[in-house]
Amino acid sequence: MQKQLLIAGGGIGGLAGALAAARAGWQVRLYERAAAFSEVGAGVQLGPNVVRILHDWGLAQALQAVAALPQRIQVRCALSGRELAVLPLGATMQQRYGAPYVTIHRADLHGLLLGAARAHSGVDLHLGQSLERFSDDGSAVTATVTGCGSAGKPIEGDALLGADGLWSRTRAQLLGDVPPRVSGHLAYRALVPREALADLPGLAGRDYVNQVTLWLGPRLHAVHYPVRRGELHNLVVLVEGPAPQDLESWDHAANAAGLVAALHGCCSALQHVVHGVAAAGCGWRLWPLCDRPPLRGPQEMARGLVALLGDAAHPMRPYLAQGAGMAIEDAAELERALAMDALEVPLRLRRYALNRWQRAARVQERAVRNGQIFHARGPVRWARDGALRWLGAQLLDQPWLYGGGVGALRGA
């Protein structure tokens, strides 16, 4: 008989998990508490390790239709504006890792996965309903569905996947965890039309809009890159500071004056980028950044008939640009594990966790370290800038990351 997978959460991770499980031959029932599918946020960077998976799922054409293909990553000093290093992308990444480096609007990535899930006969999507509690008796998992007239309705499946994000209720019941930790960092995010940045003083002309630009400064950094086929630019400024009190309402209207104050002393070119948001009639949104300590073992990703995926398992800081990517890698590994029909379901989920936890933990650790390096002050900052000027692309490239993951295991 066809196995049944229950999924809590309909974000990028949940939809990727649903598509992966259906590809493995399982029947999927996904429950999303919101009344409509949507994805908040702005841009996402996807390295070749992630793009290989999307291509393997038959989504290359759909991805190309909505993404941008930046040609390089340029690192600059936020104080002087001087270029520190450049990493070629484009054809270089394609040749080296078998897939390009792309940048995409979160809503476009979510829509791409949603379209693929809806088109698959093995996926049933339920809106306005959430999985509140579950029990695992070793042979089946039973969960309680609430919302849309389903108050306390029990449903049964062969396994449950918690893909319900940073504040995962599935994780809380499975692991009994404390809340996520507050990083002490804030992310100001904005989207502007390409034309708003194309001719700003101090920038590299129109070629500038087709790259990822990273500015490093004391206790802050900024990054911006094209999304939506290059029609929009995603801007993020990350600063160290106190978080809003209500962390679960994590998308806040930003006080632009606070951002301007945080950038005091930065070069005029970066100031022009930030002021370009207001000049274009666009606004800023504010996210307090939270994460969890790196995974300590496979038992933190799967127990019995219940597994966790994406931010529910390993929320991370954005300083390696791999949050969404790790969720998609999780899903690809889940597909491999669920397709192992000779194994009992708990062993399949155990195999999934064994194959994922160390890589996810390494990315979590490196993301924290990158944040410390990006925001360095004094002698550490001088040493960082000197190393970037001397070694350049050698420091920026990440073969262990871009060449690793599930795509590499498949021979991509």
| pLDDT averaged residue by residue | 91
The amount of beta strand, in percent, is 25-35%
Instruction: Using the CA coordinates, give the radius of gyration.
Output: 21 Å
Distance between the termini: 32 Å
- Using DSSP, what is the number of strands? 19
CATH superfamily: FAD/NAD(P)-binding domain
- Uncertain regions spanning at least 5 consecutive residues: none
Q: What is the CATH class name?
A: Alpha Beta
Under the CATH scheme, which architecture would be assigned? 3-Layer(bba) Sandwich
Helix content, binned percent = 25-40%
The number of distinct structural domains comes to: 1
| Principal-axis shape | globular
What does this structure look like?
With 412 residues, this protein is α/β, with parallel strands linked by helices. It has a single domain (4-179, 292-409), classed as FAD/NAD(P)-binding domain (3-Layer(bba) Sandwich). It has 15 helices and 19 strands. The strands form four sheets. An eight-stranded mixed beta sheet has the order 5-4-13-14-15-12-17-16, sandwiched between helices. It has a six-stranded mixed beta sheet with strand order 7-2-1-11-19-18, with helices on both faces. A three-stranded antiparallel beta sheet has the order 8-9-10. The longest helix is centred in the C-terminal third of the chain and has 30 residues, at 345-374. The radius of gyration is 21 Å and the shape is globular. The protein starts with a strand and ends with a helix. The mean pLDDT is 91.
